[in-house]
Amino acid sequence: MTMATEGSPPRLDAGDKATGRARYVDDIHLPGMLHAAVHTSTHAHARIIAYRLDAARAIAGVKAIVTGADITGVRAGGIVKDETMLARGTVRYVGEPVAAVAAVDLRTAQRAAAAIEVDYAPLPAVFTPDAALARDAPVLHEEFANYVKTVDGGGQGNVVFESAITEGDVEQAFGNCAAIVEGTYETQAQHHVYLETNGCVADVDSAGRITLHATCQSVHHIQQRVAEELAEPMAKIRVIATRVGGGFGGKHASNIHSIAAWLARATRRPVKLVLSRLQDFEIQRTRHPARIWMRTGAAANGTIVARDVRITLDGGAYADESPAVLAFALLMSRGPYRIANVRAHGKVVYTNKLRAGSFRGFGNPQATFAGESQIDELATKLCMDPCELRLRNAMRPGDTAFGGQPVRSCALRDALERARAAQRAAPVLPPRDGCRRGVGFAAMSHISGLMGTAASVQLRADGSIALATGCVDIGQGADTAMVQMCAGLLGVTLDRVSYAQQDSDVSPYNWKTAGSRSTYMTGRAVAAATIEMRQKMLDQAARMMECAASDLELRPGGTIGLVGVPRTVSFKDVALHSLFRAGGPIAATHGFVFDGPGFDPKRASIHRLAFANLGVYTFGAHCVEVDVDTATGKVDVRRAWCAHDVGRAINRVACEGQIQGGFVQGMGYALTEAMHWNEDGWLTTTTLADYKIPGVLDAPAEIHPIVIEDPEPSHPLGAKGIGEPSLVGAAPAIANAIHDATGARLRTLPMTPERVLDMLP
């Protein structure tokens, strides 16, 4: 690697974003463009009897109206195909899109949407998993048995999916434990609160081909979903990614893309559909509320020998990514520890609330809140230091993850020791008046490898480089990292590499910007393609210089020379020779599906897991200091030390930003953020006045990112992902610090002042 990956060059998009030149979806204005608005359900569960559209159609400027009755396409979704772009026959949550209008301007579209009347026959509704699992509960998806499912999850009634993983003999192991702790932990629905709400602009050409400009996490995923819902071949759907104002899992798919595309097809005009903040709260998705029962046992010397876990997730009205979130929660429920005997069982349940789906951490924050809280409870029972208990049981290189996959790179012990040492070395910060100080630790693991991706690279005629991937930058700096890797392997500066906007017509396939996988998965494809093209360049230069390719080397500034000899040819010379003399264009493409070691059936019994394979584990540890006001119960996080393994830091400043940002989002999950519904199923937290995210005055002045580099052997540059892990450890570390300060053990999130006050001794 050369100068392109040394230090932390500014993000490629920083200038445009800082000056307002970056184009987001709401900045797009096409000739003749219409505006769309959505009419949503006022019932949590009801049959649709009739639509009354005359009043809406009579409004001047209305060009098209679509309802569920107009939909002829198949049901769409992830593993369970249970959803249509508009409710068809039945509504299953308040806020579900029922109809949509395209009109000459937004105000007219909103007036027309409000003028639509729908006749309903109300049905009994259920708002909690317990109610949904009751013997007399209404079945929310009566046709569930007929839905297409890509993986059999054994669902029936209101159960969407069930999974289980077992290693060892749990019952026998508990019989040999000197200390056992047991408890139930509950976590809430959290909203993504990206700066930019979901939106798109759909256009259609004279041949009926639809082009979507979308704020999204995958052009290919949306292309497939819209094609399914509109019953069109994928060749007739094109998706172009705009700049994205944050995603966090909330923009991997949305029914609004298909709604806008349907209206554009019907009117033969461009249609813009951008959700208001209130609509985005009501229509999109949440983090899964969870109830986790857990039991953990250890020997007298602190060796953890057994863990038993039961997880119930509230999936909301549609399956979305629930089966996969459940699978990952179960895989993470063992924690990053050597525990020989573990049993984890889980289920996802339909309820009459907004769907739950992908969210930064993907089931790991829920499982880790329970697991890391219980580590501290076990330490108390064993009279051990909580950090020492973690170190005693921490995974090491060569160990296996839950499921039996070997873990070649593991820096967990280093992360714990460095976080602890940094906190101990920091100057003493006195607690605020009336407050008690507490220190808490949490350890976590995550993954970087899953699904498929590809990259292509090409040598241009002037010797510069064209790089393309399907990896959408959602604010984390992926564009810059990809260009850094390509430029570094070729020994050129970043300005010699162009990076193409993601476009389903031309971009190499990428599953999603999700799962902390971009730097590892797409970055690995970029590196492999660049290395292949580099060899082709050397081969071409060897023909030009009449020598062996092995005698050549890349030199800074875009030249190739003989080892030990001043003679060189430029990249431009090589490109022109290949284009006009011999060899042909120099380019390379590399694509793959995650190919790491799979689950080991000899070690683990796995039942109905949504993932065929995933891996490349990364590890981290948090240490936090909190002040707890004993009069009000308010918790202030004063300082945090977050140590995370990134494999190799392609851009250190970007890694540090991900660590700090993830921790603050995890603080919100721990202390303030929660979505609430009333007894009729209406969401009551629909604005940022009702839904509290951490502001600048809430975040601690000191969040110390500790970047650990433990190169991943399977990546050509050693890189891993860092997008999600820093959120995962925040809530349990804060909970453990509250206990250290007050003796109060909180097992329900968020840990609001009221809950803390109620638990104080």
Polypeptide structure, described:
With about 750 residues, the protein is an alpha+beta fold. The chain folds into three domains: about 30-125, Aldehyde Oxidoreductase, domain 3 (Alpha-Beta Complex); about 290-395 and about 410-450 and about 600-760, Aldehyde Oxidoreductase, domain 4, CATH 3.30.365; about 450-595, Aldehyde Oxidoreductase, domain 4 (2-Layer Sandwich). It has 19 helices and 30 strands. The strands form seven sheets. Strands 3-7-1-15-12-13-14 form a seven-stranded mixed β-sheet. Strands 9, 10, 11, 16, 17, 18 and 27 form a seven-stranded mixed β-sheet that branches. Helix 13 packs parallel to helix 14 (about 520-545). It is globular, with a radius of gyration of 27 Å. The mean pLDDT is about 95.
| Main structural class | alpha+beta
Mean pLDDT: 97
Name given to the CATH architecture of the largest domain: 2-Layer Sandwich
For the record, give the distance between the C-alpha atoms at the N and C termini, rounded to a whole number.
Answer: 57 Å
- The number of helices is 19
- What is the CATH superfamily label of the largest domain? Aldehyde oxidase/xanthine dehydrogenase, molybdopterin binding domain
Shape call: globular
Number of domains: 3
Strand content: 25-35%
* Main β-sheet, spatial strand arrangement: 3-7-1-15-12-13-14
Helix content: 25-40%
What's the CATH first level of the largest domain?
A: Alpha Beta
Largest sheet: 7 strands, mixed
- Quaternary arrangement of the chains shown? single chain
- How many strands appear in the DSSP assignment? 30
The CATH topology of the largest domain turns out to be Aldehyde Oxidoreductase, domain 4
Instruction: Show unreliable segments.
Output: none
Question: Could you tell me the radius of gyration in angstroms?
Answer: 27 Å
